[in-house]
Write a structure and sequence with these properties.
This protein is α/β, with parallel strands linked by helices and 322 residues long. Helices cover 34% and strands 23% of the residues. Strand 1, helix 1 and strand 2 form a beta-alpha-beta unit. 32% of the residues are buried.
Length: 322
């Protein structure tokens, strides 16, 4: 016998659910139980094969060796009732095996989960702070796998904001992530209709890019921003260093560092769009990205996790953009 559960990080949940606005739960059920029912219903409507039965709150770090967690992560897991004699067999297959009420249960990951901020408080941070750097940590873990996917399982983004999101700062990265394979579930209000996301990169940019017309030269079919330029005629996307170079500063210790979370804002913009472009038969030119890393390699502290992850993207680019 098996069942599917959504497991969320106990450091943040279920208490974070209390920050969701305008939830009118009936008197006979708690706000958290009411929200849980909506999440389960929404995921199962998105993919009825999952058939999630409940939500639990745990520390997944103690269960799976290759999982990467943050305050806004979780996993969809399958649990299988097993016999005492099968414990070692399942453990060797990277299942997490535990006992409960004199039963033995083997648990495996079905899909990794990102769960949104409870409110649309910060447009720039809404996606970037939730997804990064966790996604990069997964890419690092599985960089030597023969697959070109970010990890060994798919990712799902669950949007729990109880309002329709209209900001393109949020919709653009989410729509691009959907186009490169991330599952997406709106729990309360429909912010993105997946079937309405354009397959054509230019149409996509026209719909989701802020002030597209002011950044697009129609005579040259060239889009240009601080993050990248896109030559639609010759099918070339060039990742630029302008934004990130504008957002570093020298500290008192003499080393440089990124301003605030600017590197996350950069990644959430360039990463899904570049993959989307490459999958659409565009050439991706990341030479300026390499130039930035080479120029500042010794100007960042050797202990900077941010810059280490920044440099790592070159390895991923070399693998992906053949």
């Amino acid at each position: 016998m098996s069942k599917i559960k959504l497991v969320l990080n106990e450091r943040s949940y279920p208490s974070k659910f209390n920050e969701i606005k305008d939830i009118n739960a009936p008197a006979y059920v708690s706000k958290i139980k009411y929200i849980e029912s909506y999440i389960i219903k929404s995921i199962n409507e998105y993919n009825n094969k999952l058939n999630i039965s409940e939500i639990t709150y745990e520390n997944l770090d103690t269960q799976f060796s290759n999982i990467h967690t943050s305050n806004f992560t979780g996993a969809i897991v399958e649990e299988i009732d097993i016999l005492d004699s099968q414990k070692e067999l399942y453990a060797q297959k990277d299942f997490y095996v535990y006992s409960k009420e004199n039963k033995f249960i083997a648990r495996r990951i079905v899909e990794y989960v990102f769960i949104s901020l409870p409110t649309e408080a910060s447009r720039t941070a809404f996606c970037s702070q939730v997804i990064f750097p966790t996604l990069i940590d997964y890419i690092q873990t599985y960089i030597n796998s023969p697959s070109y996917s970010a990890a060994n399982h798919k990712f799902m983004f669950i949007n729990i904001v109880n309002d329709k999101i209209t900001s393109k700062y949020i919709l653009r990265p989410l729509a691009a992530l959907i186009k490169i394979g991330m599952d997406y579930v709106d729990v309360f209000k429909k912010s993105i209709l997946i079937e309405d996301i354009p397959n054509d990169l230019k149409t996509f940019m026209q719909r989701f890019e802020n002030n597209f017309d002011s950044k697009y030269d129609s005579s040259l079919q060239l889009f240009n921003s601080k993050y990248y330029s896109i030559d639609f005629k010759n099918k070339i996307l060039k990742i630029k260093k302008e934004y990130i170079e504008d957002n570093i500063e020298q500290k008192k210790n003499g080393f440089y560092d990124f301003k605030g979370s600017s590197e996350k804002f950069y990644w959430i913009t360039i990463y899904p769009t570049a993959i989307f472009a490459y999958n659409s038969n565009f050439t991706v030119d990341y030479s300026e990205y390499i130039e930035f890393c080479d120029k500042y390699d010794r100007k960042f502290n050797n202990n900077s996790d941010k810059f280490s992850r920044f440099k790592f993207f070159i390895i991923y680019f070399k693998k992906y953009f053949k």
